[in-house]
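User: I'm writing a tutorial on reading structure tokens. Could you give me a worked example: one chain, its sequence, then its tokens, then a sentence or two explaining what the tokens reveal?
Assistant: Sure. Here is the example chain.
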Amino acid sequence: MGIDRAFILLHLVGFAAFLGGAFAQTQFLKMSQKSGLATAVRDEYERLAAAISTKVELPVLFAQVVTGTVLMVHEGYAKQHWLHAKMSVVLALLVLAHLEMFNARKIVKARAARGDAAEGEIAAMKKKHGVMGAIGTLLVVAVVVLAMWRESIVP
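And here are its predicted structure tokens:
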């Protein structure tokens, strides 16, 4: 297996891990909003969402940038216009992933500091998190479209 194949494999595995982490942390926050859920379970779902965002989603996204940069340089894509568009979307995903991480951690901190008294604030943060998840989904679709049909979309 050549270096380019190895980095493509790492890039694809990293993409799958990023998608899994993004999906999981969003689902944990969504499940934490169910009525009748035990307090301990709700709190654990919130902590899991923050942990996945911090320990899986963001590190893998940075690995994506590294493997993508190696592929870009190795394959000579640096002057391709479609890649500039893709990298812009990836940059937006990096910013969004950080905002999701900060938001998830704020939920955990608010819950730890004020418990159920922070419920209104936490509900607003969870709603915001859902919006960020929807935006992230659109950005991921854009990355896939740019990667798959790069020559025909952007000259």
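What the tokens reveal: Helices lie at 3-31, 39-75, 81-114, 119-148, 150-153. The longest helix spans residues 39-75.
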